Amino acid sequence: MEGKKNTKFIVIIAILVILLMGCVSYIVYDNFIKEDEIVNNNNQNNNDIQNDDQNNDEDENNKLSEEELNKLGLELFSRTSLELTSNITSGNYMFYKEYDITYNDLKNEERLEYTYMQIPNSEKTYNLNDAYDRSCIDTENTYTCYYEKILINTFEEYYYKMFGLDKGINYEWFTVATDNFLRCEKEENEIICYPTDGGGATDYRTYLNYIHAEENNSDILVYVNLLAMGYNGVEGGIFSDAAMNNKIADESPEVTEDNIFDIYGDEAGLYKVTFKKDINDNYYWYSSEIIK
Question: For residues 272 and 162, what is the distance between their CA atoms, to the nearest angstrom?
């Protein structure tokens, strides 16, 4: 009986000790630790807010001015507004097709040709007169003397500038029309272009008009109007799309390359052309999307 009383007494003492320790712990937390946690949390929240504000300020500071954005937009537009004439077309703008496109939608020979067209004449080597000498024609009436050529390193520099550093280059022969119609191919460390037969024109023209540019995070969006004029295989007229399906007016002698957008600009097709930035801070073409 005495042993049971002692056991109950020990249990009661243990419970009281536990309760006492709990009370002491709460008092210590409430008066000392809790305040420190609140202060630390407040400091962390303030730091987070300051960091967010700082990041927002940096984003604002990195934004281009309206003048800078417009200048960049025009420069990027000029990269996409060269005509591919080697396919015997007039107005074949590679980046403004009948459908939305990205890099993988382009033909390899188109990429090679367009890169070559980007390269200024000052970076090419010429053999303008001797290339057409009779001694340069073989038994199959094929020219064997080059007309112009450039270094592979130069070609690749412009390829990556146009399409991005992450792209691989698949070399094959391609045709290009500059002052003459040429067939080009890679030979050792050069792209060498030989004279060849070709050329011609179609009975339509495509026209482009730069509208404006926008920043979208680190991307640049360039907006471009398109109109086409001529014969689409069925009828002639002025069309608002590259496929020449949407006729908006009949042709007229009063409508010229200089005023076509003044007259029909509100009805023109609209493209959004996206440029992304690579690790060298170069904006390369990423996609062309038909808006209307």
Answer: 17
Q: Which burial class, exposed, middle or buried, applies to 166 when counting CB atoms under 10 A from its CB (0-12, 13-18, 19+)? A: exposed
112 within 8 A of 156, measured Cβ to Cβ: no
Please, what's the b/e burial string for 121-134 (b: 16 or more CB within 10 A of its CB; e: otherwise)?
eeebeebeeebeee
Residue 225: which of 276, 275, 267 has the closest Cα?
267
Q: Are 23 and 16 in contact (CB under 8 A)?
A: no
Strand, helix or coil at 58?
helix
**pTM of the shown model:** 0.75
In whole angstroms, what is the distance from residue 58 CA to residue 46 CA?
Answer: 18
Q: Give the tokens for residue 30.
A: 């409430």
Q: How far is CA 164 from the centre of its chain?
A: 8
- Is the distance from CB of 239 to CB of 245 less than 8 angstroms? yes
Q: What is the pLDDT along the chain (292 residues), one digit of tens a residue?
A: 555 555 666 656 666 667 667 655 656 456 655 555 554 555 565 555 555 555 444 455 678 899 999 999 999 999 999 887 655 555 578 999 999 999 999 999 999 999 999 999 999 999 988 888 888 888 788 889 999 999 999 999 999 999 999 999 999 999 988 777 899 999 999 999 999 876 555 678 899 999 999 999 999 999 999 999 999 889 999 999 999 999 999 999 999 999 999 999 999 999 999 999 999 899 999 999 999 9
Can you read off the two tokens belonging to residue 240?
């608002």
